[in-house]
């Protein structure tokens, strides 16, 4: 049996079907252990994931995400916290207002969750084999947004990946672009 460690950074294309836990279950059924964690937010792009962090507070308060009494697996609260196990800019309840707070980031809404993650990462800093990136569906097809994503990858994500504990293989999930019919 082999352990495969996978981090997920993306948007609703990943969380609607609970892709991180789905991949974990697939691994278990193939006799491989899959350790997963994520930083997901609906509508996120690679650049906005860095500014907003996790947006799963209202989404993953489910039985499948239950870790222990009152604690749910919302994922890591920011991209640096996910990749490195810490984020010097992340403070309990966003006290320094570094990140955009729209009520969806679990570390800003639940101090117990913030403390839980801090202790978890201090005891066992994350190590990743793969990081699966999902940019906003339309970004690759629009030159200005594609350029912004590429710049963000080069200037922020690549240095973060180089700082991780291990040899990380980035994987890019490209989804089909669609038009929203919401008026």
From TrEMBL:
Domain of life where this protein originates: Eukaryota
Listed InterPro entries: SGNH_hydro_sf
Name of the protein this chain belongs to: Uncharacterized protein
Organism (species): Trieres chinensis
Source lineage: Eukaryota, Sar, Stramenopiles, Ochrophyta, Bacillariophyta
């Amino acid at each position: 049996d082999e352990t495969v460690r996978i981090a997920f950074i993306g948007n609703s294309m990943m969380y609607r079907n609970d892709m991180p836990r789905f991949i974990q279950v697939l691994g278990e059924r193939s006799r491989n252990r899959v350790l997963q964690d994520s930083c997901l937010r609906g509508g996120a792009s690679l650049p906005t994931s860095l500014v907003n962090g996790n947006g799963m507070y209202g989404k993953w308060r489910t039985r499948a995400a239950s870790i222990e009494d009152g604690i749910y697996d919302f994922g890591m609260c920011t991209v640096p916290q996910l990749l490195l196990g810490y984020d010097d800019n992340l403070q309990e309840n966003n006290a320094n207002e570094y990140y955009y707070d729209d009520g969806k980031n679990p570390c800003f809404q639940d101090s117990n969750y913030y403390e839980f993650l801090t202790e978890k990462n201090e005891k066992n800093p994350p190590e990743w084999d793969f990081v699966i990136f999902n940019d906003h569906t339309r970004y690759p097809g629009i030159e200005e947004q594609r350029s912004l994503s590429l710049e963000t990858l080069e200037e922020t994500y690549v240095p973060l990946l180089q700082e991780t504990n291990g040899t990380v293989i980035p994987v890019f999930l490209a989804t089909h672009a669609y038009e929203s019919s919401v008026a």
